[in-house]
Amino acid sequence: MNTAFTGPYQLDGRQATLQSQALGALINHGEITTAPKTKFLDDVAAFEQALFSSPSVKPLSEALAKGQTPPPTDPPLNELELQGKALFIHNCIFCHGGPSQIVRDVLSVPAVQDIRISRPVPPFAEGIPFKPSFLRPRLWAFRVPGQAEPTIIPSTDPGKALLTGSIDELNFFDIPTLHGISKTAPYFHDNSADTLEEVMIHYQHEFEGVRRVIPDFLPFPLRPDPITDDQLPPLIAYLKKI
Question: How many CA atoms lie within 13 A of 68 on its CB side?
Fold first, then answer.
């Protein structure tokens, strides 16, 4: 859903177009031996571009394509959901902002694409009760300019670093739109969160870890505010409506 305005595609952003994404799926999953016609790939892309998570998201997509101001997409919200929207705007729009809910250069700190889904977590996050991974970390070797020997780092999934070979993109993943998120469980690239409640608990832990390494003299949002337990119900209520 919503692929009309959420490129690039795949969880690590490796495919620039829906056509290349479809071709990759045909080769890797369908194991085709004859290349499909261009028209076939265009037809698949056209079909995918017509799938939206809600009727209100379609005019948003059309407006983005025309360079126009997109219309609002939220349905009517009750008091709890309005509280959640305010919290979302305060805490989340730096990564999930704008009409598409995708911000790719967040405060000029692209490292926010590592939200501690891959394991093991870095030393500064030790002791925080992140949900354990069902995968075992493997060792990955990276060539770093100026170093004679490769740097060896464990990770359950290096993400974009597998594509670029850059250790600077270790454990990075694409930032997804949240439109229709209530319909797409389980969550995260490895399906490690079964519910939106688990997603928000993960972000409680993530913000706690980031606050350990960001000096307290730096202002918000460079140093995120904590997400408290009483903020979880309204946030989750809003996420279930968008």
Answer: 10
d(CA 204, CA 240): 18
Say what the pLDDT of residue 113 is.
Answer: 85
Helices 232-239, 79-91: crossing angle, 10 deg rounding: 100
Determine if the peptide bond prior to 76 is cis (ω within 30°). Answer: no
CA dist 203 → 7, 173, 219 (Å): 24, 15, 19
The DSSP secondary structure of 61-79, one letter per residue, reads HHHHHHTPPPPP------H
| Closest CA relative to residue 130, chosen from 232, 58, 198 | 198
pLDDT reported for residue 13: 84
Question: Taking the alpha carbons of 230, 88, 176, 72 in that order, is the dihedral positive or negative?
Answer: positive
- Measured CA angle at 94 (ends 92, 10), to 5 deg: 85
Domain boundaries, the chain: 129-169
Rounded CA Rg of the chain: 20
96 phi, psi to nearest 5 deg? -115, 45
Quick: pLDDT tens for 104-149: 655 545 546 899 999 999 999 999 999 999 899 999 999 999 999 9
- DSSP three-state, residue 151: strand
Q: What is the dihedral of CA 26, 18, 177, 160, to 10 degrees?
A: 70
Strands 138-142 and 151-155: antiparallel
**8, 174 contact by CB (below 8 A):** yes
pTM of the predicted model as reported, rounded to 2 decimal places: 0.88
* pLDDT in the model for residue 88: 97
